[in-house]
Design a protein that fits this description.
- The protein is an alpha/beta fold.
- The protein has two domains: about 140 residues, Rossmann fold; about 100 residues, 3-Layer(aba) Sandwich (Rossmann fold), CATH 3.40.50.
- It contains nine helices and 15 strands.
- Strands 5-4-1-13-14-15 form a six-stranded parallel beta sheet, sandwiched between helices. The protein has a five-stranded parallel beta sheet with strand order 7-6-8-9-12, sandwiched between helices.
- Strand 6, helix 4 and strand 7 form a beta-alpha-beta unit.
- Helix 3 packs parallel to helix 4, helix 3 crosses helix 7 and helix 5 packs across helix 6.
- The model has no long low-confidence stretch (mean pLDDT about 95).
Length: about 250
């Protein structure tokens, strides 16, 4: 049986607004016992916060274990590949919890790692502290590099904006974990004991959701409810397996 790997922002909801068809699609998967995992680049929320957000929007029977985030992937990647554990972190609850779960210690200076996730309260001083640590030798790990974050029908700056700023300032490229980079997919497959040929990736963003599947030769479904539309496919030369306007189209 296929497992649906489903994006959140722009696919399930936009900020605090429901996206038409999303709840119906999830209900359909639950009723048919079709497995699914929410795979999101948004590193701000913990699993519980992500669950509560969806329940507040009217989704039913959502569980903590339904979520896998770029924050979790970044923490697991660093814990698996490196022995040191002192980190400087730009990020919100989701990234802080993920790093703590993997045994990382939070420091202000002499860090082994600098993790950069979306942080809506970060300021010039915090970004400068990140730069200081990276220039002193800390490994620079980006949870994700999204350009934009769908928010209540508008688009906010994504984490990629901050990552690009720090890369420019330090002249050091980050280790990129989230979609479309293969690290997050490899970790997801290992954690959930999945096979690529059994996956269907569903998302609104050609540069993240669809490119991840396209590069990995996994079936992809683009839904035009978020960042990109059908007109962007040829412009970006990233081709989904199929393209739909509403997730209700997948209900059989």
């Amino acid at each position: 049986m296929k497992t649906y790997i489903i994006d959140l922002d722009g696919t399930m909801y936009s900020g605090n607004k429901n996206i038409d068809g999303a709840r119906e699609f999830v209900n359909y998967l639950q009723e048919k016992n079709i497995p699914y995992i929410f795979l999101t680049n948004n590193a701000t929320r913990t699993k519980k916060q992500a669950k509560d957000h969806m329940l507040n929007l009217g989704f039913k029977n959502i569980k903590n274990e339904d979520f896998f985030t770029s924050a979790i992937a970044a923490a697991k990647y660093a814990a698996k590949n490196f022995t040191k554990r002192d980190c400087f972190t730009i990020g919100e609850d989701g990234l802080i919890e993920a790093l703590a779960d993997e045994g990382f210690n939070f420091v202000q200076e002499a860090a082994d790692f600098v993790f950069v996730g979306l942080d809506r309260k970060a300021d010039y001083s915090k970004y400068s502290d990140a730069i200081h640590n990276i220039l002193s030798g800390a490994k620079f790990i980006a949870t994700n590099t999204d350009r934009l974050l769908p928010n209540n029908g508008k688009f906010d700056a994504g984490n990629g904006s901050a990552v690009a700023m720090i890369e420019y300032a330090t002249n050091i490229q980050s280790i990129k974990v989230g979609k479309p980079y293969p690290i997050i997919l490899d970790i997801l497959i290992t954690e959930y004991n999945l096979k690529k040929e059994d996956l269907i990736l569903v998302g609104d963003n050609l540069e993240t959701d669809i490119k991840l599947g396209y590069d990995a030769k996994i079936e992809t479904i683009m839904v035009c409810t978020g960042v990109h539309t059908k007109d962007d496919v040829e412009r970006l030369k990233i081709y989904p397996t199929s393209c739909i306007n509403n997730l209700k189209e997948l209900i059989k």
